[in-house]
Amino acid sequence: MMWKALLLLLSVSTLPLIEGAVLCYFESWAVYRLGDGKVEISDLEPALCSHYIYAFAGINTDYTIRVLDPWADLCDGGGRCGFDKFTAMKNVEPHLLTLLAVGGWNDGSALYSQMAETAETRAVFIKSSIQLLKIHNFDGLDLAWTYPTQNGGAPHDRENYVHLLRELKEALEAEGMVLTVTVSPTKSVIDEAYDIPGIAQHADLVTVTTYDLHGSWEHHTNHHSGLYAFSEDVGSDLFLNVDYIINYWVAGGMPEKKLVMGVPAFGRTWTLDSIEEHGYYAPAYLPGMTGPWTKTEGFMAYAEICVKQAEEGWTIAVEKGCNEPYTYQLSSSKIWCAYENHDSVTLKAQYAADHGLGGVMIWSINDDDAHGVCGGRKFDLTSTLADTFNKAKR
């Protein structure tokens, strides 16, 4: 029995240090994109991130974990073996941790809320999750049930979420695995959904999605991941900036060393109503045109943005008192896009280090310039984020 205890101790000791984490999400559906938008697991650079996180798995109606895209994720029946290829990056970078993310906005809250209600149903989910992680050599789970009590959830999710985290943590730690969680940046959601000290007690790292703070669902332009409030922000818009959100989580009881700040490798776009107004709060009642690879209105990957900027007629600007760029084209499309670039990512990484945060996160690495089509340096945003943060933490 002593050798079993020793093995368990050694496996638990491999848990990552809280400080200095660089989390990189990979969207499994990026393999279906066309042209330079297509990103395979083989395109990733294993040494770039401390944690690579595969998005997403889901949940079945019997509360077991669900493989959402068996053909892409598994090897069965001639599949693409996404899970196994992803965790095989550790053959190149032995210190890398590979995690599987479970949840996401599209998965909703209803089934997670039901699963978390009782110890029995939670045990079903936890057991099946660990089995899947072990089969495919993952190092842990990222719980991306980001909106307890929201999106089909129930009020008791707040308490049950912490029960789930406690039991998940115990089960994963016994296998030498880690538990990270992804949480909302929205003040009203934080107040209703999260017992922050309870979350802090059981999660290894807590990633705040500090982006998508504005978008084409609003009928005026604004930056979706501003580090600080814009001078004309009023009311609840004063809550929609990275600095406010990070400080709100810390004030609520989250230790800085466990907190991970999210940075987007994508932009949010609008179609301007008039070419005469093209700063913040410019009227814009329609989303921007779709990018050539992501094909989503109101959204463009960083690689799509920088390719577009090589065309004529694009202006790049930074609003007074702000750090992040926006770009617009008035001659034909009237598109306006808020995004991150090399300089703004540098500032965000420095901010995270200066505030003693445990890590930074990029969503998602496949939206970065994966093939070096813009500046010649592959994954420039992710590399800049990691380099700046790690140097500042030393």
Written description of the protein model:
This protein has 394 residues and is an alpha/beta fold. The protein has one domain: TIM Barrel, CATH 3.20.20. Helices cover 31% and strands 19% of the residues. The chain has an 8-stranded parallel barrel with strand order 1-2-4-5-6-7-8-15, surrounded by 6 helices. Strands 9, 10, 11, 12, 13 and 14 form a 6-stranded antiparallel sheet that branches. Strand 7, helix 9 and strand 8 form a beta-alpha-beta unit. Helix 5 packs across helix 6 and helix 11 packs parallel to helix 12. InterPro entries: Chitinase_II/V-like_cat, Chitinase_insertion_sf, GH, Glyco_hydro18_cat, Glycosyl_Hydrlase_18. Keywords: Glycoprotein, Glycosidase, Hydrolase, Signal. Pfam families: Glyco_hydro_18.
List keywords for this structure.
about 400 residues; alpha/beta; TIM Barrel; 12 helices; globular
